[in-house]
Design a protein that fits this description.
alpha+beta, 5 strands, five-stranded mixed sheet, globular, binds FE2/S2 (inorganic) cluster
Length: 107
């Protein structure tokens, strides 16, 4: 399991033990944390699984590909350099202790 901290839209900090075989989107949902909609079910087609990842995670992850970058332009909250589609991030690729912040809204 990978230990993550998820900051909810309400600003609460939640400790999550994430299964490395899942996507970050699935891990957040499996932890029962609200704030991910994931309308498309994880096919990078909706941008309602938008998250912001901390600098350690940004450094560890492969950069978003062109399709992910394009979809992030449709996110309800403006994307930044820290933005990712959580369905496209594998927990296994995140560093232990990564901090993931959910945007105020996904819609
Ligand atoms: S769940 Fe739709 S883009 Fe991630």
């Amino acid at each position: 399991m990978t230990k993550l901290t998820v900051i909810t839209p309400a600003g609460e900090s939640r400790a999550v033990e994430a299964d490395p075989s899942t996507s970050l989107m699935e891990a957040i949902r499996d932890a029962g944390i609200d704030g991910i909609v994931a309308e498309c079910g994880g096919t990078a087609a909706c941008a309602t699984c938008h998250v912001f990842v901390d600098e350690a995670a940004q450094a560890a992850l492969e950069p978003a590909d062109e399709h992910e970058e394009g979809m992030l332009e449709f996110a309800a909250v403006e994307a930044t350099a820290a933005s990712r589609l959580s369905c496209q991030v594998r927990v296994a690729d995140l560093p232990e202790g990564a901090v993931v912040t959910l945007p105020d809204t996904q819609l």
